[in-house]
Amino acid sequence: MTQFAWLTGRGPALREAQLDRRARLAPPAPLDERPLAEQRLVVLDLETSGLDMRRDRVLSIGAVVIEHGAIDLAQQFERTLCCDRPLGASVLIHGLTPSSIAAGSEPAEALLDFMEFVGSSPLLAFHAAFDQRMLGRALKQHLGQRLHHRFFDVAELAPLLCPQAKVARGGLDDWARHFGLQAQQRHHASADALVTAELALILLSQARRQQLDSLPVLQQRLRSWRRRHRVQSL
């Protein structure tokens, strides 16, 4: 092999070192019965060029780790991904300038760095379906890698565990305001990941008080909650 990029079938162009890193990425661990306080959870936030999950692109990734029942500020992740094609005015919402995006990390490198950071841990995000779809699409496009890690949606956990809360629209700002949390800078991946992690800690504490003290039990309760809400919406 040479150090130059090469194609593997119809997949993306990856250098030999990148292929080696991809091969060594940890597969997702199965959900186990350990108490929530003993779990390592990665809280993720993506900033994208828009909300079209088929066309828009991941511009930045922010993440922080919850471990031993607390946010571990020593385990934080932040990357801006380089994008060489024109982006819409919506990018300005994130505070990402064209120059910062042009100077960002090569997408394949940034995604390898992130998946190494995640390891085998489950992921949490607010409105997780969007982040899961966008991250999965980016991994497939730039690494030829499928995303199999389990996601938990903080936007679902909040009303499940706090049904008595009077939260109007149910967005991240609404739940943060309800619990008195403040984001240092909204629509910034690392800041949004941190406030999402703070909210998740409150919700995990609620889950323990409700005897939902493992990820499989919490997942099962979420499935029941979703079915009930689907029936109610018919």
TrEMBL record:
Instruction: Give the highest taxon in the source lineage.
Output: Bacteria
State the Pfam families in the record: RNase_T
Keywords on this record? Exonuclease, Hydrolase, Nuclease
Annotated Gene3D superfamilies: Ribonuclease H-like superfamily/Ribonuclease H (3.30.420.10)
Q: Where is the signal peptide?
A: none
MF-aspect GO terms: exonuclease activity
InterPro entries xref list:
Ribonucl_H, RNaseH-like_sf, RNaseH_sf
Ranges where the Exonuclease domain occurs: 40-209
PANTHER family this protein is in? Answer: DNA POLYMERASE III SUBUNIT EPSILON, PROTEIN NEN2
What is the protein name for this chain?
3'-5' exonuclease
- Organism expressing this protein natively: Pseudomonas lalucatii
